[in-house]
Amino acid sequence: MNFLTRLLITALVAFGLSYLLPGVHMDSFIAALILALVLALLNTLVKPILVILTFPITIITLGLFLLVINAVIILFAARLVEGFKVDGFWWALLFSILLSVASSLLQGSDERKS
């Protein structure tokens, strides 16, 4: 059940951010649900590989390169999910930062209620 709650929160936040950010476009809430599922899969399967491959540059940048990895994952998800479009790298970077912060805040408040 926890996975489904996280998926729904991520979809809600992503859908809301598509209204706030002019460089992020989402056709429907169904596209947001699919995006949340694709992001969960990419973060589970692809992100660890990218983190390992870019470990030296991540150390040199004191971890800031992880933001670039998150933006690349968002851009990759935009290619995979029909109905989700990001206008460029900087919009993907901003979207990924805001998505992470808002999802963490909402999931944290959800866990405190339990």
Give a nutshell description of this structure.
79% of the residues lie in helices and 5% in strands. With 114 residues, it is mostly helical.
Structure commentary:
The chain crosses the membrane at residues 28-46, 53-77, 89-106. InterPro entries: Phage_holin_4_2. This is Phage holin family protein. It holds the Pfam family Phage_holin_4_2. This protein has 114 residues and is mainly alpha-helical. The chain has one domain (2-113). It has helices at 2-20, 29-45, 47-53, 55-60, 65-80, 89-113, and strands at residues 24-26, 84-86. Strands 1-2 form a two-stranded antiparallel ribbon. α1 (2-20) crosses α2, α1 (2-20) crosses α6 and α2 (29-45) packs across α5 (65-80). The radius of gyration is 14 Å and the shape is globular.
Give a quick set of tags describing it.
globular; Phage_holin_4_2; 6 helices; mainly alpha; transmembrane; two-stranded antiparallel sheet; 114 residues
